[in-house]
Amino acid sequence: MTGNMISIETAGGTGKMGAYMAAPESEGAPGLVIIQEVFGVNDFIQATVEAYADKGFVTAAPDVFWRLEPGVKLNPNVEAEFNRGIELMGQFDQPTGIKDIQATITALRNHPACNGKVGVLGFCLGGRLAYMAALGTDADVAVSYYGVGIETMLDQASDIKIPTLLHIAEEDGFVPPEAQAAIKAGLTADNFDVRIYPGVDHGFARFTGMHYDEAAANLANERSLSLLNSVL
Question: How many domains does the structure of the chain reveal?
Answer without folding.
Answer: 1
